[in-house]
Amino acid sequence: MKPIITTLEHYDRLADMGNGLNDPPAAQEYMSRWDGPSFWKAISDIRGKDVLEVGIGCGRIARQLLKHGCHSLTGLDISPKSIEVARSQLSDFSNLNLILEDITEFCQPASFDIVCSVLTFMHVENKRKALENIVNCIRPGGHIVLSIDNASDSFDFGEWMIQLHPWAPERYAEELNSTGCEEVELIPLIDTWSGPGGQKMETYGEQIATLVKASKTLRANS
Question: Which fold has domain 4-19+26-216?
Fold first, then answer.
Protein backbone atom coordinates (compact mmCIF):
# COMPACT_ATOMS: atom_id res chain seq x y z
CA MET A 1 0.00 0.00 0.00
CA LYS A 2 1.34 3.42 -0.95
CA PRO A 3 2.13 5.82 1.89
CA ILE A 4 -0.10 8.86 2.35
CA ILE A 5 1.99 11.96 3.00
CA THR A 6 1.07 15.51 3.93
CA THR A 7 0.74 18.34 1.43
CA LEU A 8 3.79 19.99 2.99
CA GLU A 9 5.92 16.89 2.54
CA HIS A 10 4.60 16.43 -1.02
CA TYR A 11 5.68 19.90 -2.13
CA ASP A 12 8.99 19.72 -0.30
CA ARG A 13 9.69 16.51 -2.21
CA LEU A 14 8.71 18.12 -5.51
CA ALA A 15 11.08 21.00 -4.83
CA ASP A 16 13.88 18.53 -4.10
CA MET A 17 13.10 16.80 -7.41
CA GLY A 18 13.41 20.08 -9.32
CA ASN A 19 9.75 20.06 -10.28
CA GLY A 20 8.87 23.20 -12.26
CA LEU A 21 12.48 24.25 -12.84
CA ASN A 22 13.57 25.04 -16.40
CA ASP A 23 10.55 23.31 -17.86
CA PRO A 24 10.64 22.96 -21.67
CA PRO A 25 7.90 24.77 -23.67
CA ALA A 26 5.80 21.60 -23.97
CA ALA A 27 5.75 21.16 -20.19
CA GLN A 28 4.85 24.81 -19.69
CA GLU A 29 2.00 24.48 -22.18
CA TYR A 30 0.82 21.36 -20.37
CA MET A 31 0.68 23.21 -17.04
CA SER A 32 -1.16 26.13 -18.65
CA ARG A 33 -4.19 23.84 -18.96
CA TRP A 34 -5.08 25.11 -15.47
CA ASP A 35 -4.48 28.78 -16.17
CA GLY A 36 -3.50 29.99 -19.65
CA PRO A 37 -5.34 32.74 -21.56
CA SER A 38 -8.55 32.49 -19.53
CA PHE A 39 -6.64 32.96 -16.29
CA TRP A 40 -4.76 36.02 -17.56
CA LYS A 41 -7.92 37.54 -18.97
CA ALA A 42 -9.56 37.15 -15.55
CA ILE A 43 -6.51 38.66 -13.82
CA SER A 44 -6.75 41.66 -16.22
CA ASP A 45 -4.36 44.62 -16.06
CA ILE A 46 -2.06 44.27 -13.04
CA ARG A 47 0.25 47.17 -13.80
CA GLY A 48 0.85 49.11 -10.59
CA LYS A 49 -1.22 46.65 -8.53
CA ASP A 50 -0.29 44.84 -5.32
CA VAL A 51 -0.80 41.11 -5.85
CA LEU A 52 -0.97 38.14 -3.48
CA GLU A 53 -0.39 34.66 -4.90
CA VAL A 54 -1.54 31.84 -2.63
CA GLY A 55 0.61 28.77 -3.25
CA ILE A 56 3.51 30.33 -5.15
CA GLY A 57 5.36 27.02 -5.43
CA CYS A 58 8.54 27.40 -7.44
CA GLY A 59 7.35 30.61 -9.09
CA ARG A 60 5.89 29.60 -12.47
CA ILE A 61 2.90 31.96 -12.25
CA ALA A 62 4.76 34.52 -10.15
CA ARG A 63 7.33 35.18 -12.88
CA GLN A 64 4.57 36.09 -15.31
CA LEU A 65 2.81 38.28 -12.75
CA LEU A 66 6.05 40.15 -12.14
CA LYS A 67 6.76 40.50 -15.86
CA HIS A 68 3.26 41.92 -16.36
CA GLY A 69 4.28 44.92 -14.24
CA CYS A 70 2.63 44.54 -10.85
CA HIS A 71 3.72 47.05 -8.20
CA SER A 72 4.46 44.25 -5.74
CA LEU A 73 3.96 40.51 -5.49
CA THR A 74 3.59 38.66 -2.20
CA GLY A 75 3.97 34.91 -2.59
CA LEU A 76 2.60 32.60 0.10
CA ASP A 77 3.43 28.91 0.53
CA ILE A 78 3.56 26.28 3.27
CA SER A 79 6.60 24.53 1.77
CA PRO A 80 9.95 25.99 2.90
CA LYS A 81 11.78 24.21 0.09
CA SER A 82 9.41 25.65 -2.51
CA ILE A 83 9.95 29.11 -1.04
CA GLU A 84 13.72 28.60 -1.30
CA VAL A 85 13.42 27.64 -4.97
CA ALA A 86 11.09 30.54 -5.73
CA ARG A 87 13.50 32.96 -4.06
CA SER A 88 16.33 31.66 -6.24
CA GLN A 89 14.28 31.59 -9.44
CA LEU A 90 12.90 35.12 -8.94
CA SER A 91 16.00 36.77 -7.50
CA ASP A 92 16.08 39.32 -10.34
CA PHE A 93 12.87 40.96 -9.05
CA SER A 94 13.13 43.44 -6.18
CA ASN A 95 9.36 43.86 -5.69
CA LEU A 96 8.84 40.29 -4.44
CA ASN A 97 7.98 39.30 -0.87
CA LEU A 98 7.95 35.59 -0.02
CA ILE A 99 6.15 34.38 3.11
CA LEU A 100 6.19 30.88 4.60
CA GLU A 101 2.66 30.56 6.00
CA ASP A 102 -0.67 28.81 5.56
CA ILE A 103 -3.45 30.95 4.04
CA THR A 104 -5.71 29.89 6.92
CA GLU A 105 -3.29 31.72 9.25
CA PHE A 106 -2.35 34.65 7.01
CA CYS A 107 -4.21 37.94 6.81
CA GLN A 108 -3.01 41.45 5.96
CA PRO A 109 -6.24 43.48 5.81
CA ALA A 110 -6.81 45.65 2.74
CA SER A 111 -3.24 45.15 1.50
CA PHE A 112 -3.80 43.79 -2.02
CA ASP A 113 -5.63 44.68 -5.21
CA ILE A 114 -5.60 41.12 -6.57
CA VAL A 115 -5.40 37.67 -4.97
CA CYS A 116 -4.81 34.69 -7.23
CA SER A 117 -4.15 31.00 -6.81
CA VAL A 118 -3.69 28.04 -9.16
CA LEU A 119 -4.24 24.43 -8.02
CA THR A 120 -3.81 25.23 -4.34
CA PHE A 121 -7.26 25.25 -2.78
CA MET A 122 -7.78 21.51 -3.32
CA HIS A 123 -5.16 21.12 -0.56
CA VAL A 124 -6.85 23.51 1.87
CA GLU A 125 -9.10 21.77 4.39
CA ASN A 126 -10.53 24.84 6.14
CA LYS A 127 -11.68 26.64 3.02
CA ARG A 128 -14.08 28.97 4.81
CA LYS A 129 -11.26 30.45 6.87
CA ALA A 130 -8.95 30.63 3.85
CA LEU A 131 -11.56 32.45 1.75
CA GLU A 132 -12.43 34.77 4.62
CA ASN A 133 -8.74 35.68 4.92
CA ILE A 134 -8.22 36.41 1.25
CA VAL A 135 -11.36 38.56 1.10
CA ASN A 136 -10.09 40.50 4.11
CA CYS A 137 -6.71 40.90 2.38
CA ILE A 138 -8.36 42.48 -0.68
CA ARG A 139 -9.02 46.20 -0.89
CA PRO A 140 -12.61 47.15 -1.76
CA GLY A 141 -12.97 47.00 -5.53
CA GLY A 142 -10.17 44.45 -5.87
CA HIS A 143 -10.66 40.95 -7.23
CA ILE A 144 -9.87 37.29 -6.65
CA VAL A 145 -9.04 34.65 -9.29
CA LEU A 146 -8.81 31.00 -8.24
CA SER A 147 -8.13 28.07 -10.57
CA ILE A 148 -10.01 25.14 -9.04
CA ASP A 149 -9.17 21.64 -10.27
CA ASN A 150 -11.81 18.93 -10.68
CA ALA A 151 -10.17 17.02 -7.83
CA SER A 152 -11.12 13.78 -6.15
CA ASP A 153 -10.48 13.25 -2.43
CA SER A 154 -6.96 11.89 -3.03
CA PHE A 155 -4.14 12.09 -5.54
CA ASP A 156 -1.86 9.22 -6.57
CA PHE A 157 1.60 10.59 -7.35
CA GLY A 158 3.14 7.22 -8.14
CA GLU A 159 5.31 6.49 -5.12
CA TRP A 160 2.97 8.15 -2.64
CA MET A 161 -0.51 9.58 -2.22
CA ILE A 162 -1.85 12.80 -0.74
CA GLN A 163 -5.27 13.58 0.66
CA LEU A 164 -7.25 16.36 -1.05
CA HIS A 165 -10.22 18.43 0.08
CA PRO A 166 -12.31 19.24 -3.02
CA TRP A 167 -15.25 21.64 -3.18
CA ALA A 168 -17.61 22.19 -6.06
CA PRO A 169 -17.09 25.60 -7.72
CA GLU A 170 -20.58 26.62 -6.62
CA ARG A 171 -19.54 26.29 -2.97
CA TYR A 172 -16.69 28.74 -3.57
CA ALA A 173 -19.13 31.16 -5.18
CA GLU A 174 -21.56 30.84 -2.28
CA GLU A 175 -18.83 31.37 0.30
CA LEU A 176 -17.32 34.37 -1.50
CA ASN A 177 -20.77 35.95 -1.83
CA SER A 178 -21.27 35.57 1.91
CA THR A 179 -17.91 37.16 2.78
CA GLY A 180 -18.23 40.48 0.98
CA CYS A 181 -17.80 39.66 -2.71
CA GLU A 182 -20.03 40.31 -5.70
CA GLU A 183 -20.02 39.52 -9.40
CA VAL A 184 -18.79 35.99 -8.74
CA GLU A 185 -18.16 34.30 -12.09
CA LEU A 186 -17.45 30.62 -12.76
CA ILE A 187 -15.40 30.19 -15.93
CA PRO A 188 -14.93 26.64 -17.30
CA LEU A 189 -11.42 25.61 -18.35
CA ILE A 190 -11.57 23.17 -21.27
CA ASP A 191 -8.62 20.89 -21.98
CA THR A 192 -7.19 21.75 -25.42
CA TRP A 193 -3.61 20.58 -24.86
CA SER A 194 -1.78 18.52 -27.48
CA GLY A 195 1.76 17.27 -27.00
CA PRO A 196 4.63 17.80 -29.45
CA GLY A 197 3.65 14.62 -31.27
CA GLY A 198 -0.02 15.57 -31.39
CA GLN A 199 -0.97 13.28 -28.51
CA LYS A 200 -4.01 14.34 -26.51
CA MET A 201 -5.02 13.66 -22.95
CA GLU A 202 -8.08 11.53 -22.21
CA THR A 203 -9.70 14.74 -20.97
CA TYR A 204 -9.19 16.59 -24.28
CA GLY A 205 -12.26 18.70 -25.01
CA GLU A 206 -13.58 18.27 -21.46
CA GLN A 207 -13.73 20.69 -18.56
CA ILE A 208 -10.81 19.95 -16.24
CA ALA A 209 -11.02 22.98 -13.94
CA THR A 210 -12.94 26.14 -13.15
CA LEU A 211 -11.79 29.71 -12.72
CA VAL A 212 -13.59 31.36 -9.84
CA LYS A 213 -13.46 35.15 -10.24
CA ALA A 214 -14.96 37.51 -7.67
CA SER A 215 -14.82 41.22 -6.95
CA LYS A 216 -14.88 42.67 -3.46
CA THR A 217 -17.74 45.08 -3.13
CA LEU A 218 -16.82 48.73 -2.74
CA ARG A 219 -19.13 48.81 0.27
CA ALA A 220 -17.24 46.06 2.07
CA ASN A 221 -15.35 46.92 5.20
CA SER A 222 -11.68 46.07 5.15
Answer: Rossmann fold (3.40.50)
